[in-house]
């Protein structure tokens, strides 16, 4: 009889399963691509729309359904079809409208429904951020101004991250360069406190530890096809 062992990662199998036996084969099932996630999203949207029509008499337009399916497909990057269906069930149980399916996907992924970038507190901190950061970092008004501009675009959803196929794409990137003592580290600490609060402790990597070519695997993980790739590195 044929026996199937289903695991999340190949590393979860005993080593002797993958090598040294012609009777054993490892088959990797890839994550569904964008078109399959879009099809699953449309299936979920149609089910939810029919349910809303039956329960509340609401009729969703074709354009609204297509937009909701596309939003769900984008926000479900890295999920399987079964997980996308689970997102739909969660949205139905919580009574979320079609326009908030991306929030349902966030809730399923990280357990948080609301977008932290949309909160009043974060937006107010960003609006007051230039004065705050200039008080933390002396003599760098241009760097502070550029930093606040990036955060304003992030809070307003103008960075393009919301339209990316990956929800983990950064909302903004700051590359701080300059000699020792100009305020790079203090600016990073100030940004973390501005967004996360005074108790924020940003993660810091000493890049001198990653100077050797082989050390990059420690930061971003092993290359595809090598053992440990799926486990990632310290950064990923």
Q: Any overview of this molecule?
A:
- The protein has 236 residues and is mostly helical.
- It has 2 domains: 81 residues, no CATH class; 88 residues, Rossmann fold.
- It is 49% helix and 0% strand.
- α2 packs across α3, α4 packs across α5 and α7 crosses α9.
- It starts with 14 loop residues before the first helix and ends in a 16-residue tail after the last helix.
Write out key terms for the chains shown.
236 residues; mainly alpha; Rossmann fold; 2 domains; 10 helices; 49% helix; 0% strand
Please give a quick description of this structure.
The chain is mainly α and 236 residues long.
CATH uppermost class of the largest domain: Alpha Beta
Total helices: the number is 10
Secondary-structure-based class equals mainly alpha
Q: What spatial form do the alpha-carbon principal axes imply?
A: flat
CATH superfamily of the largest domain: P-loop containing nucleotide triphosphate hydrolases
Count up the domains.
2
**Total E-strand runs:** 0
CATH topology of the largest domain: Rossmann fold
Q: What is the correct CATH architecture of the largest domain? A: 3-Layer(aba) Sandwich
Poorly predicted sequence stretches spanning 5 or more consecutive residues: none
**N to C succession of SSEs:** HHHHHHHHHH
Amino-to-carboxy terminus distance: 40 Å
How would you state the average pLDDT, rounded?
Answer: 82
Q: Main sheet, how many strands, which sense, barrel?
A: none
* Overall helicity: 40-55%
Topology readout:
Blueprint: H1 15-18, H2 34-56, H3 62-75, H4 81-94, H5 101-110, H6 120-127, H7 129-136, H8 141-156, H9 184-196, H10 216-220
């Amino acid at each position: 009889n044929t026996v199937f062992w289903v695991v999340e990662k190949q590393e979860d199998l005993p080593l002797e399963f993958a090598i040294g036996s012609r009777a054993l084969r490892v088959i990797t099932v890839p994550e569904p691509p964008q078109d399959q996630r879009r099809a699953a999203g449309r299936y979920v949207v149609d089910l939810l729309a029919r349910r809303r029509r039956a329960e509340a008499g609401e009729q969703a337009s074709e354009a609204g359904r297509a937009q909701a399916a596309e939003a769900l497909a984008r926000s479900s990057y890295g999920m399987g079809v079964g997980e996308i269906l689970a997102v739909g069930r969660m949205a139905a149980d919580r009574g979320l409208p079609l326009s908030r399916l991306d929030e349902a996907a966030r809730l399923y992924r990280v357990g948080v429904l609301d977008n932290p970038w949309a909160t009043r507190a974060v937006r107010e901190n960003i609006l007051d951020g230039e004065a705050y950061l200039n008080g933390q970092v002396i003599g760098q008004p241009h760097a502070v101004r550029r930093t606040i501009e990036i955060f304003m675009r992030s809070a307003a959803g103008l960075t393009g991250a919301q339209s990316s196929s990956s929800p983990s794409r950064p909302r903004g990137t700051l590359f701080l360069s300059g000699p020792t003592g100009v305020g790079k580290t203090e600016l990073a600490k100030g940004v973390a406190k501005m967004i996360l609060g005074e108790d924020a402790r940003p993660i810091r990597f000493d890049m001198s530890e990653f100077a050797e070519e082989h050390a990059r695997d420690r930061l971003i993980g092993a290359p595809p096809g090598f053992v440990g790739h799926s486990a990632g590195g310290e950064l990923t």
